[in-house]
Amino acid sequence: MAGAPERLVFVSPPDEEMATGADDPASVPAAPREDFRVLCTSKRAVTEVLELCGRFVQQLGDALPAKIREPALRDAQWTFESAVQENVSINGGAWQEASENCSMDSDIKVLEDQFDEIIVDIAMKRKQYPRKILECVIKTIKAKQEILKQYQPVVHPLDLKYDPNPAFRMENLKCRGETVTQEISEAMKVKAAC
Questions:
Q1: Are the CB atoms for 61 and 72 separated by under 8 Å?
Q2: Which tens digit of pLDDT belongs to each residue from 18-68?
Q3: How many angstroms separate the Cα of 164 from the Cα of each of 68, 167, 168, 169, 170?
Q4: CA-CA distances (angstroms) from residue 53 to 15, 47, 49?
Q5: pTM to 2 decimals?
Q6: In the chain, how long is the greatest CA-to-CA distance?
Q7: Is the dihedral of CA 60, 66, 70, 76 positive or negative?
Q8: Number of alpha helices (DSSP H) and beta strands (DSSP E) in the chain
Q9: How far lies 54's CA from each of 42, 50, 146, in Å?
Q10: 141-190, pLDDT tens digit by residue?
């Protein structure tokens, strides 16, 4: 107990047919043996539980004298882990046969289920929200139209008066036009000289 744990070889219990004393195995029908091990799907999850329970085993050693505490704790921990590994079945197989990656299948299954739920949820929103958005857009457009109907620009129209004698205005425009024409022709001459 005080030394390092030795390698153990587990021997399966004798078959029922050997217990009955039959010499010829072919004469006795083979009955399937019932598996009493705890069926688990994740080796990683069982390892986490072992680590959690390992803390309790460590606490049990606090009551022991210091001289024998370390080897006794090591032996108790090893015995506990071996008992759990022997009595647990990972996906129907032995502990040693199960790989650490076997839990990925169940994790992938869970992720696929969650992904399917998200897809269904988004599909429902794609059907519902456009209708809700359309209602909001229609209400907004109607409100803008109501506001525009109430809007009246503040532009004061200019009162135009009809002039009964347009000849005076025409003479005034004619004089101004001649003056502007002379100023433009002088400016062009000065520009050409430069």
A1: yes
A2: 444 445 545 555 556 677 888 888 788 888 888 888 888 888 887 888 888
A3: 131, 9, 10, 11, 12
A4: 33, 10, 6
A5: 0.36
A6: 146
A7: negative
A8: 5, 2
A9: 18, 6, 75
A10: 888 888 888 877 777 777 777 777 788 888 888 999 999 999 999 999 98
